[in-house]
Amino acid sequence: MGDIVRLNVPFRQSTKVTRQAALVTAFATQRRSPDDVFWMKENAELLNVLDATGEGQDPETLAVHLAFYDDIENRLGFFPQYYRFLLSICFDLEDLGIGGHKGEKLANWVARSGLAEAELSDLQRAEARRLCQRRGVDPLPRDTGLNDRLRGFARRSETFAMPNKKAAYELTHIVFYLSEYGRCDPGLDAVFIDSLSFAGTLAFLDMNLDLLSEICIALRFAGTTPPQIWEMWIAEQAARFGIETAGAAGVADDYHQFLMVNWHQSLAGQGGFALHVPEGPIVFRQPHPGPGSLRELSECMYGLGDRRSADWPAMKTAIHDKLSSEARSVLNLAESATDRFDAFFAGFARTGLARLGGDRP
């Protein structure tokens, strides 16, 4: 087992910027090969977080990406299916200070090639538009209703009162794109905020650190302070993370949770990126956060059948003795975190359709 470096270890990398620089080097050279699509994914995500936090990097740090940057036109031409990763890496490297100016040319080529028009998902189209518009190019000039469709999806709050991780992650990314990663007001109304609140309540009930961190980031981009209970729990989990030296690169780990938690900590003014980064291949480890209550609560509600109700005070009494003490504890915290728990539960209970039955056809 590798050595786990925790927060109370004296740092050789004495500032956040030097620790972030060590991450840039490790992601670029120690975890995967640049020919691996997961290398592009990981490095695009790390660079995006660093750019979004607004914390500049020493150009010498970015030198580890120079060979990739120098060849990026060839990669885009041969691997157009990865154009969003490649554009993101290119733009972030330039904006962080690598010293090149290829982005506008690449964005224009993507637009002329119709790559954004080939996307089936509105969310992917929104990401493509957001990327290209960073260099003043709109790859979808005729799609004037894209943002309205995204807002329509996000404003159906009942969607996010039911367990659906894919929808919840799409919701957070809609906020990321509408807000330009916190650079502008996304103009979210109360119904949209309810959707984020409901999705966050489910993430907390499930003890899903990655998703809850994204939801709290999205709420802050919307100008709303997330519930204190959520952010305190995220801070507790951040302090338990470890970075281990690895025997070989390319292993599955908790790097995304690490990035989201530390992005949130930076945004919330709570530090972030405090861990020393060992030399060589590394992996990120999130200790198990403990049992949540989502599965128990869902099974309990389903088991009530016709006795299931959208009335939270009535259901709270009905299910109390059916849940474990751990599940009750998490549920009580989830209820205390938000003044919209009753509204959340009305959707979570799923009582809108009577039990199917009647005559057989």
Structure, explained:
It contains 18 helices and three strands. With about 350 residues, it is mostly helical. Among the domains are: about 30-150; about 295-350, no CATH class. The chain has a three-stranded antiparallel β-sheet, with no helix packed on it. It is globular.
Strand order of the largest sheet: 1-2-3
Quote the beta fraction. under 5%
- Globally, the shape reads globular
Q: What summary fits the major beta sheet?
A: 3 strands, antiparallel
Q: Extract low-pLDDT stretches.
A: 1-11, 357-361
- Could you tell me how far the N terminus lies from the C terminus, measured between alpha carbons in angstroms? 61 Å
Mean pLDDT level: 92
Question: Multimeric state of these chains?
Answer: single chain
Gyration radius, in Å: 22 Å
Quickly give the structural class: mainly alpha
